[in-house]
Amino acid sequence: MTDTATLTGLAPDTLADLLRVAATPGFDRWQDQIKRTGGCADPIHLTGWTLTKDKTSGETLHRYSTETEPGGRLRIACGNRRASRCPSCAWTYAGDTYHLIRAGLAGDDRHAIPATVRERPRVFATFTAPSFGPVHNRPGNRPCRCGIRHAEDDPVLGTALDPSTYDYAGAVLFNNHAGELWHRFVKRLRREIAARAGITQRELADTARVSYGKVAEFQKRGAVHFHAVIRLDGPDGPDDPPASWATVDLLTDAIRAAAVHRYASVTVPAAGDEPARTFQWGTQLDIRPVKAFGDGSDLTEQAVASYVAKYATKAAENTGTLDRPIGNREAPVLLGVPDHARRLIDACFDLEPLYPERRLRAWAHMLGFRGHFSSKSRRYSTTLGALRQTRADYRAGQERQTLGLDDTEPDTVLVLASWQYAGHGHTPGESALAASIARDLQLNRETARDALASLPVEGEW
Fold first, then answer.
1. Residue 29 sits in which domain range?
2. Measured CA angle at 168 (ends 162, 173), to 5 deg
C-alpha cells in the first residue's frame, strides 16, 4: 500500500484519513486510477459514461460508466506544468519539452522532422536581463561585495545589497516587457543575417528561415532571462537546407549584433513619478554551438534539450514568490514571502495604476512576467499538441487491445460519450498516498533510464 517513509511525520488527522482510504472498498481500483495519472497531486474528477458500438451491426462492443468507480468518479491527471503544483504532471511536461527541443536538433521521424537538421547552423544562446542594482552573488573565488563568501544555498543570494536604491520598478517592468523584447530581437536578427549575407530581407525569406525554441528562467534576483536554440534552415523549414553562406559563425555574429541594437529594444513611457525606460538585453550574452556528438568543449543535442526541459516546469517561485495569483498585497507578508520577492510584488501593485494595460497586479505572482515560459517558431519542430496526441493514440491502442478491439477497424466503430466535471484534488490521506505512488513511479523511471544509459547507445529522456 505505502512505505514507512510516507507514514513518518504525518499529522494524526492525515494518518487517520490515510487509513480510512486504505480500508475503503475499491481501494485497489483507486490506486490504479492514481497510478494511471502518474501520481498526480491534484487530479480532475469526472463523472460520465462511454459506449462503443459497431457502426454496421449496431452491436455494443464496450460499455463504461463511472458508477462502478470508487466514489463514482474517474480521476485524470491535472496536466499542470509547474513542478511546485504537481511534480508528476510537470515531469510529463518536461519530457514533452525535451522531445520537442531535441526533435529540432536531431530530427524525429514520427513527426516528420528529418535528421538533416543536425547539419544546420544552430546555437544555444542565453539572453539575460540588465542590471537593476547590485545584488549578493558568488563572483568566482572572490567574496561578495558585502565581504562574505556566500555558500551556494545561501538564501541571501540574488537579493539587493541596498534595497533602498534597487530599481524594483524597473525589474518588474522589464519582466513584463520581456516577451516583446524577444520579438523585437528576432525581427532584428533577420536584418542582421541578411546584412551579413549581402542580401535584402526579401531575398532572405527566399533563401533562409530563422527557427527557434526557447524557455524562460527566473534568476535568483527575480529577473527573467531566456535560453534559446536558434537554427538556420532553408525557406521551407527543416526539410530544406539553407544557402551556402549560412554558417554557425555568421549566425553567432548576427545574434550578438541584434541583441545590442537599439531597434531591438522596448521603450516604456514615463508615468507618474516613474521615468521613461528603454530596455535591452543584459551584457551577459552567452552563445555556444550545438554539436551532434560532444567533444568535451561544446554542448550536445541531448544536453541542450535536457537543460531547456529542466526550466520548462519552473516559474518565479524559485525566487521565493508564490505560484498562484495574489489577491492582495498583504498575502505575501502573511505567507512569509522573502523581503526581496515581496518588494518586487509590491512594485507590481504600485505600478498597476500607472500602467493599467500591462496588468501588473494580475501577474504580481510572476513578478510582472506575462509571457509564455516555453515557445517556439512555427517550423522549429513538432508541437506539444502533437506529442500529446501521440501519447493519447498509444494509450488508446493499449485500451483497444485490452478490450479485444485491436482487430476492429477504427472507421467501423462509433463511440458515444458524456462527461461532467465533478471536482478535483485529494483528501489529506489520499494526497499522502498519491505522493508515495508518485515517488515509486519516479524511482522506476530513474532505474529504467540508468539501465538505458548504460547501453552502448545514446540515452533517451
1. 4-82+416-453
2. 155
